[in-house]
Amino acid sequence: MRYLFFTGFWLFAGLATAIAQQDLLKKLKEESSPMEERTAGTFKGTRLINGHTVEVRQSGVLDFLISHRFGRLNSGAYSFFGLDESNIRLGLDYAVSDRLTLGLGRNSHLKVYDGILKYKIFWQESGKREFPVSLVYLTNLAVQTFKRPELPMNFERRLAFNHQVLIARKFTDGLSLQLSPTFIHRNLVATRAEDNNGYAMGVGGRFKLTPRTSLNVEYYYRLGDPLDNTYNPLGIGVDIETGGHVFQLHLTNAQAMTETGFVPYTTGDFFGGDIHFGFNISRNFQLREGKKAVSW
Amino acid sequence: MKAVMTIVLVIAVYGFSFPQSFKSSSSEVSFFSSAPLEDITAKNNKASSLFNAETGEVAFVVPIKGFQFRKSLMQEHFNENYMESDKYPEATFEGTLSGYDLDRSGSQQAVAVGKMTIHGVTRQVKIEGVLNSSSGGLTMEAKFPIRVADYDIDIPTVVFYNIAEVVEVSVRFNYQEI
Fold first, then answer.
1. For the CA atoms of chain B, what is the radius of gyration?
2. Contact at CB, B70 and A286, closer than 8 angstroms
3. How many angstroms separate the CA atoms of A104 and A113, rounded?
4. Less CB within 10 Å around the terminal CB: N or C of chain A?
5. Which of the residues B32, B62, B71, B158 would you substitute to probe the A interface, choosing the one with the greatest number of A C-beta atoms within 10 Å?
């Protein structure tokens, strides 16, 4: 009787301990309050193909961007399917804060200098606070320095402006979509009939193929009355991320790499084979440690 | 028989009416990866823990997104590529702490045995640490290595900063009685 009693007791005690142990972790998980979580990595890069994504770098990061667009694939073997011809954009974007990024770039195509101001208004958030989308305001100023002796050019005539609101949502780990309403103003246009203002709606998406690669699509649909012999810019590309770099390889009918160039003036017909192979490489340098980073 | 019953009852009642339970008031979980190109460190203050000193049961929850890195891009890669923190938002440990004498104040060695879950993989582990009790509360500290391959954390060969195969994890939890 005594033996039985003790055995029973220890069995019970053992069982109780096992149950309690499970409960302890469960209890802990229930008690812990959800963290404030900003959705990270809606896109890999700050550019999707030609246009911007809602991504900004964190405070203190300098992003060095090298972008290339080769000539047209359908230019044939003589110009090595476009590889003989290339135009380049060199850019530096600096994240002044987590919200504000300022950038400068220089395009070989039409010798355009561009300035960027990008401001993150909202982050997509989950957990403690919920917010469904990321929202960014982007503005560019482009200065075309191409020599045009046939025209009396002054500084004002060389300017073009772009204003965009970028709205994106990371739906799942693998799928992100973006809408980019766009307004472009050019101080100088070719003819009196042409409107100085232009409107477009950009759509873009990312589909993750593996944790480090993704398939990207970008399209700008121009509203109103676009110029004859110009097309809506379309791009299809792949992102490959390798730690400190993001490599973006793509096929696009646009040659320019700033909004004031590729939205109104894309002359390639994608489905007619006027496709430029191109790539963007982005390298990040942490110049200043973010406020949030802990001291060691 | 009666005496035994009495003792059991006393223990049971005593045990249930005065459970010495502790809850973490502050914590710090950090890891260090030494690699040829770059040392990588990250720190997390969002972890929480419960400890039942009577039975030795102890539980820890570490939210993966709470790790702060010096380089923001590293933090993104850590969450997106290595830890897949959307899929596996937390690392946990549940087990039993033994080898300590709670009546003793000051620092003493203790051993935790139990189940560690990281990146969705659960493994039986044994961790040696230091328990420090004072009038102000209780502190647990431990330093232990984690082999990333043990938890199916995939490190690709083509990365620009190499990550060590074994990372050194340090934990410190301060507890208050509840």
1. 19
2. yes
3. 7
4. N
5. B71
Cross-chain Cβ contact A293/B69 below 8 Å: yes
What is the percent of chain B where pLDDT is above 90?
53
Q: Note the pTM of the prediction, 2 decimals.
A: 0.81
The angle formed by the CA atoms of residues B142, B60 and B43, to the nearest 5 degrees, is 60
Contacts of A244 in chain B (CB under 8 A): 73, 160-161
Query: In B, which residues are within 8 Å of A25 by CB distance?
Result: 59, 61, 92, 94
What are the sequence ranges of the domains in chain B?
19-177
3-state secondary structure chain A: CHHHHHHHHHHHHHHHHHHHHHHHHHHHHHHCCCCEEECCCCCCCCECCCCECCCCCCCCEEEEEEEEEEEEHHHCHHHHHHCCCEEEEEEEEEECCCCEEEEEEEECHHHEEEEEEEEEEECCEEECCCECCEEEEEEEEEEECCCCCCCCCCCHHHEEEEEEEEEEEECCCCEEEEEEEEEEEECCCCCCCCCCEEEEEEEEEEEEEECCEEEEEEEEEEECCCCCCCCCCEEEEEEEECCCEEEEEEEECCCCCCHHHHHHHCCCCHHHCCCEEEEEEEEEEECCCCCCCCCC
Task: Identify the band that residue B13 occupies on the pLDDT scale cut at 50, 70 and 90.
Answer: very low
CA A273: distance to chain centroid? 26
Residue B15 has pLDDT above 50, yes or no: no
Low-confidence ranges of chain A (pLDDT < 70): 1-22, 243-244, 290-296
Mean pLDDT, range B22-31, rounded to an integer:
94
Return the CATH superfamily for domain B19-177: Lipid/polyisoprenoid-binding, YceI-like (2.40.128.110)
pLDDT for the residue numbered A15: 53
Which of A25, A41, A242 has its CB closest to that of B80? A41
In this predicted structure, what is the pLDDT of residue B29? 96
**Residue B31 to residue B74: CA distance in whole angstroms:** 13
